[in-house]
Each structure stands twice: as C-alpha cells, then as structure tokens.
Amino acid sequence: MHVETRKLPEWYVMQDVHDLGERLQLYEDQMNLLEYPHMMSAWEKVDRLTYLQKIYEDTPYFGRKLRYFNTAPWWYRSVFNLEEIPDNSRIWIVFPGVDYHCKVWLNGRYLGEHTGYFDDFSFEISDGVRTGENVLYVKVWSYWDTEVDPGAESMRCFAVKRNMVKGTCEHGDGFIQRDVNPVGIVGTPFLHIKRACFLESVAVENLLLEDGRGLVRIRGEITVVEDKKEDKSSEAAKGQDLQVRICLLGPDRMLAAEKEVSGQGAWMEEITVENPMLWNTWDRGGSRLYELQVVLCDRTGEAVDSVCKHLGFKTVRLLRNTETTRFYLNGRPLFLRGTSYFPDVYVGDIPGEKYRHDLLLMREAGFNAIRVHVHVEQPVFYELCDEMGFLVFQDSDFSWNHPTMAQWLAKNLGIFDRMVERLRGYACLGCWILLNEPDKWKTLLDYFGSCLEEIIARTDSITEAIGRQLTERVKRLDPMHPYIRASYDEADLESGDSHTYLGSLRSQASNYTDIEGTTEKFNTEYGMDAPGTLDNLFRIRPLYEALLPVRERMEEIQQYQCRLLKYYTEHYRRQRFAPCSAYFQFMFIDLCPQSFYGIVDWWGIPKQSYPVLKEINQPVAVLAYPQEGQIALMLVNDTEQKKRGIIRFTISRNGLLYRQGELEAQIPADSSVQAGSISDFGSFSQDKDLELLFLAEDGTVIATNHYQGAFCEWKHIAGHPVPVNNELGMRIFR
Predict the structure, then answer these.
(1) CA gap 592, 478 in Å, rounded
(2) Is the Cα torsion angle 323, 328, 333, 338 positive or negative in sign?
(3) CA distance linking residue 350 with residue 354, whole number of Å
C-alpha cells in the first residue's frame, strides 16, 4: 500500500520564561541558548511526549510548584532526517494532540497554529520538507485566566472568565486542584506520506430511513499526485483505471452491501441496507456494528489506500414538554441508568486498557449510559462504548463562565464544531450537552440579582450569548442527535434535566431524605464524595496525612456515601417514567487521587459504595420502602423480557433471624409494579436488616437488595460539604 508513517521520536523541550522566543525568531535555529540563560531554560531531552507536569513532577495533581508550567510558553525541538523524498508523494506532519495553544515551524517556515486539546491535527509539508536534515519547532502554552466577574471574586471557581475552552480546568473547588492546568504535546508526532494516488476527506453519514432501510452516504476525493518526472504516460499521473471498492460488512461479518466508484476527484456514493440490525445498549440486545471498508485500488487491483470505519444504525429522540423529559432509542423509551465519567485530568494520557477496565466495571454495576462530563475523551473510549453498548451523553467544553464578546466567540466556537464533527458518527452517541450549569451560580450573588429567569434573559448571559450559538451550530452540524442546552434547567424545554445535591453539596442543613416527595423528570447529576481506602492514599503522603484527623470517621464517611446513593437511586427507580426517565450518578471514578466523587477510586479500586449501587442499579431491581405502616415491595424491569418468580424476604436483628417469608411476583417487560408488602415489620432500628431476593421459577437469582439498619436514614454528616484544603485540592471532612 502506498501509505507510510514515520514517527519523530527524538524531542527536546525548554521553557521560554519571558516569552521572547518568537520575537527572537528561535525557530530559525540560529540561537545559542547558552547566550540567553536569563531569558530561557536549557534544552532538555524528553523520553516521551506527554503533559509536562507528568514529565517533571512526581505529584502532578496538586501543589503551587505546578503553577510555573503555565506562567510562560514552552518550545519543543525535533530534528529528523529524510534520506530521500519519495517521488509522486505528498507529506503531512500529524500531531496526535497538543494542550492547549501551539504554533509550528519547519525549517524556519511557519506552518500554522492550533487551539484545543482533544483532537489530532496536521500540516502539509510537501513543499517545505527537504532531503537530509529537517528542524521542527513547536511553541506550546496553556495560560492562567485572571479575569473574574466583578462582585463574584469569592466564587472564582465559577466566576473566572474561561478564555480557554477546556472544560473543568481551573475549577478549583475540590474537583480539580487550583494549580493544575495541563500543558504539552501529548503523543508522538509523525510524518504521513502518501504516494501517487490516495483517498482524501472520506466522510461517512448513516441513518435509518422512514421505511426501515439503512442508508450509508460516503463522500470522498481521489487525489493523484503529479509526477515530478513529468512522465505523461504514467497511469498514476493520469489517474486512469482507479477504483474505489466499498464494502459494508454486517455484525455477523457477512457482506451486507458493496459498490464501486471509478475515476478521480470528488465523489459521493450511497448504499442501502434492507432490514438493518440496530445498535442498542448492552441491556437491550447489545451493540450491532457494521464495518465499512473503503479501498482505493490501482489498475492492477493493488490496494494503494484505504479507510475503515465502524457504524451503527439507530434512531434517537429526546421528548420534552412541561410534564415529560424522556429519551427514545430506536423508537422505544429507554430508562437511563447513568453515571458521569472523567477518568483523569490528564485525559490525553489514558491508556486504552484503563478505559476497558472502567467500562467493564460500569457494565457490571448495571449502568447503560455515560455522561462524559465537561471534556472530550480519546477516540478509543468512544470505540469501546460502540462495541460494549453504552449510550453516551457528551458535554461540550463550554461550562460555567466564558467571555461573551463576538470576537472571542468567533475565535473559539470552532472548537465546538470540531468536537461535533469528530464524535457525531459514533454509534454510542445519544445526546449533546451544550452547556453545564451556566449562570446558575449567579443566583447566590446579590450583584447579579436573585432571579434566575432574569439573569438568563440578559443578552450577555452565558445561556443566551453562548447557548444560542451552540444550539444553532449543533442543529446544523448534527440534526440526527438531540441536545440539552443548559444542563440543570428542568423548566427549559431545550434542556429539561435537573441536578440535585440535597444532603451532599447543598448546605449542611440539607439531608438526602429531603428528596422524598420530590419529582424529577431527567436527573443528570446527583452524588456524594467520600475517600477510598487509606491504603491507596498512603502512596501519596500529603493526602494521607491530611485525612489522619478523620481516620476514625472514615467508615462513617464511606457509609454515608453508600446510603445517600442508595436512597437517591431507589427514589428515581421507584418513579420510573412517573415522571423520572433517567438518572446519572456523579461520578464513576475519581479523576485524580484526591477528588473523591467516584464510587471507584483513582487507582481503579471500588469503594464501599460500588457494590451497594451495583445491587440496585441492575436492569431488574427489587425495592422496598415504608408505606402506611407496612413495607411496600416493588419490582422494576428495564429489560424487554417479562420476569416471574418469587420474592423472598428475610428480616434479621443483631444478625439473628427475626422473620422471613415469600410471595409470588411477576413483572411485564419494560415496566414497574407494586409486588406486595411486608406487614408487621416492627419498629425501625439500626440493628434491624432486611434482605430481598427475587428468584426465577427455576431458582435463578434475578435481583437482590439489602437494607442495613433498614429505613433508619442518616443526617448530613459533619464536615461536609466544607472545608476544602486548597493546597491539596481535597475535602478534609473536619
């Protein structure tokens, strides 16, 4: 195949502490840095390209020493040799990722710039690369934002004007530590050499037609490189007898459709699939993926270039009105048992095996939906979600507070466009979340007034100034997927979801039982933070020592997280489609060692809350709750198969049998039913436990549930939600 890649493995880096390198034309490769020690650091060789904090610091997740990484730009230098430049070729340099701004020069020639952190990008260097030695310079920086809305200084974590569109960076409230702002080239750049003729700009769109057929539309271009020797008889130069072979393989690996395209230049082809197998979540039939192969062949039939993509046929819809917010997959309502995901603040450095490990834990815990919280993951994550059958709600990087000037928007909205274009083709994509909690925090400040509706209505509000533009862009770029405009705003018919933190991030005066009697249509955030095991935290001594004063309370804190998550989750499941149709626990894994919102710690070890949530979060659940002096029993079935059997209950006191019994029960597919009740339960006390088993007729366990200290709920624990140790970026629970 006439395609070649060559990595550029040898790199040097230095910090331009006064940001003078560009003015001094460092990229001309004529400066001796030893003559400028007061201006710049020395060149240092790096063994691999990743975030600079991870190269130079042992603890890249907290500490004021991290701030110097963002006080000035960094320069990278790479020298590579080409013994020869292949005839009839075009050459690109490809960057897997750079966080956040960069400019690039090759052999003193300016190639261009890029802003962002989640996408690869390239520059064609066919006219600038030379035989022999080539010198590449890259300037990279990720600065600190300093502007804060006047009157909101005490809430800087929300009120800072985020000039960078990189999500949760600088949140600084015990989520990501104040001094962490990732920067650097992530992944090794490489040369991409294509010879003679190749496929270019291959774009794929697939959808279900109203008659049930699947349609795949492929657009591309065949480029033929001019023969430098001007051999007019060259078939490659003429571009004659070139063919594009298009094959669509079904989930069963059988050929579903095929087409051929001849010639060169721009082309478009459509193929249809009769009765396509639909992609679905793992608990509703599983992921059925098609493989599209687009192969360019020369006149001899040899493959000279190819593109391979996986795709899934599905329909998605988000129904919203004043009474209902409900998600539909393939024309049927789907109850979403979701979690939020942000596996590491240094997101570009996450290995694929970690993603798979986390997703396997999620599926074991019963989740069928994932909210990617205010960031964008690597492509391998979405590929795994396609394969494993997880529905993804994708946040943009616009969050909380940004400038609203037209000039800033014109410069930065393109980052949103690239995200949509990059992710819209994944089968797992279910919904876009355009903004996370814009303007809501302003209700806490007299400066902004107290009425949220009035704040949102202002032309300079984030919801209005940015939300409207993002809405228009996503409708144009991806009309196939629904969106949530401002996540949290249940009353907004372009949003329709809610966030609830009673007994958690809300004031100490709130308790998680305060949600009783409330109704939410579509919850996208609820949760509670609690440290994992001290054995793991012991590996990072400052974190371990900061928690020593509450060591004796660690069991209490962890158990409180268990009880809050159990209470909330059962509350939502009991209201299945009446009106609740979704919940997203916040969040699945700690995104750094000292951020404790996960049910799995940063090292991937489940906390005490993981098995508790796992038990009640399965597609079929058996629930109990007090009702009119009895214990009501409910079955919830999110599967497409009816279930019948018996519910067996056991009541124990101080570990000794107190009472037991069983009753016949059945539940239709996709439903919830009152299955009976337990009378004469007696008084509620911390020493009384209830165990439930839902058994099939053959004795197979369908669902289990345990209520320790049954229905004796806890008050909001002391030391929460404050204080936070800002030097460590962690809650210390005092």
Answers:
(1) 33
(2) negative
(3) 7
Q: Name the band, by pLDDT with cuts 50, 70 and 90, for residue 236.
A: very low
Do 336-617 and 196-311 fall under one CATH topology? no
pLDDT tens digit sequence for 593-647:
999 999 999 999 999 999 999 999 999 999 999 998 899 999 999 999 999 999 9
Cite the beta strand spans of 550-655 per DSSP E.
582-585, 620-627, 630-637, 643-653
What percent of the chain clears pLDDT 90, i.e. is strictly above it? Answer: 79
Phi-psi region of 50 (alpha: psi -120 to 50; beta: other; left: phi over 0): beta
Q: Where are the domains of the chain?
A: 3-192, 196-311, 336-617, 622-707
Whether 486 and 467 have beta carbons less than 8 Å apart is answered as: yes
Q: Measure the CA–CA gap between 118 and 422, rounded to whole angstroms.
A: 10
| Calpha distance 176→156 (Å, rounded) | 13
**Is 3.40.50.1400 the CATH classification of the domain at 336-617?**
no
98-106 and 132-141: which strand pairing?
A: antiparallel
- d(CA 478, CA 469) in angstroms, rounded, equals 14
β-bridge mates for residue 185, sequence order: 98
Share the mean pLDDT of the chain: 92
How many residues are there in the chain? 734
Compute the distance between CA of residue 607 and CA of residue 601 in angstroms, rounded to an integer: 7
Instruction: Enumerate residues 6+ apart whose C-beta is below 8 A from 536.
Output: 593, 601, 602, 603, 605
Q: Helix H segments across 575-713?
A: 609-616
Say whether pLDDT at 232 is over 60: no
> How would you classify the pairing of strands 483-487 and 429-436?
parallel
Residues 6+ apart with CB under 8 A from 481: 316, 424, 429, 430, 431, 432, 474
State the DSSP code for 665.
Answer: E
The phi, psi pair for 452, rounded to 5°, reads: -60, -40
**171: pLDDT strictly greater than 80:** no
Contact call for residues 295 and 278 (beta carbons, < 8 A):
no
When computed from its CA atoms, the radius of gyration of the chain, rounded to whole angstroms, is 28
Q: Which of 21-35, 216-230, 584-598 has the lowest mean pLDDT?
A: 216-230
Q: What CATH number belongs to 196-311?
A: 2.60.40.10
Upper half-sphere CA count for residue 25 (Cβ side, 13 Å): 7
φ, ψ (nearest 5 deg) of residue 363: -65, -40
Q: Which tokens in the block code for residue 720?
A: 């929460």
99 within 8 A of 43, measured Cβ to Cβ: no
Question: With respect to CATH, is domain 3-192 assigned 1.10.357.10?
Answer: no
Q: Counting Cβ atoms within 10 Å, is residue 657 exposed (0-12), middle (13-18) or buried (19+)?
A: exposed
Q: Indicate the fold that domain 622-707 takes in CATH.
A: Immunoglobulin-like (2.60.40)
Order of all β-strands in the sheet with 483-487: 483-487, 429-436, 391-395, 369-372, 336-341, 582-585
| Residue from 331, 401, 484 nearest 145 by CA | 401
Least confident of 225-239, 311-325, 464-478, 559-573: 225-239
